[in-house]
Amino acid sequence: MGFPPSFDLSRRNALITGGGSGLGFAIAKALAAAGASVILVGRNSNKLSKACAELGALGANATWTVCDLLDRGAIAPLVGRLERDGGPIDILFNNAGVQHRAPLPNFPPRVGIGLLQPTSPPHFS
End-to-end distance of the chain based on CA atoms, in angstroms? Predict the structure, then answer.
């Protein structure tokens, strides 16, 4: 995939939540193709490692880490560690999501509240 020179993301770090599959992985591939170093974050280490290996096979500089972003207390340490180890995060693609399938009468209220809460880390607001 070719990008115009004005879209050069070399020397940029991109954090993609939910980057192990689907839209997050597609965005990671596009950002990597534009030259960004990509950091995939999600809850499933198998998905993340496979996605990272595929990106690496394409020549991308890609890393991954497991983090449950619903645990708000885990976000600041994650960002701190990533920036300490790899430099500032220049791009955030906040793609992580949660779903719960159940008939409405069986839907637990605490799950509904959790689904409605935004997952944007306050550091990027």
Answer: 31
Of 55, 83, 22, give the one whose Cα is nearest residue 121. Answer: 83
Give the tens place of pLDDT for each residue, 95-109: 887 666 778 777 777
Which residue's structure tokens are 């999501």?
97
d(CA 2, CA 26): 15
Please tell me the pTM assigned to this model: 0.79
9-37: b (≥16 Cβ within 10 Å) or e:
beebbbbbbbbbbeebbebbbbbbbbbbb
Q: Please count the residues of the chain.
A: 125
Q: Judging by beta carbons within 10 Å of its beta carbon (0-12, 13-18, 19+), is residue 38 exposed, middle or buried?
A: buried
SS3 110: helix
User: Given strand 13-17, what is the order of strands in its sheet?
Assistant: 62-66, 37-42, 13-17, 91-94
Short-list 59, 102, 65, CA closest to 82: 65
The answer to whether the CB of 14 falls within 8 A of the CB of 93 is: yes
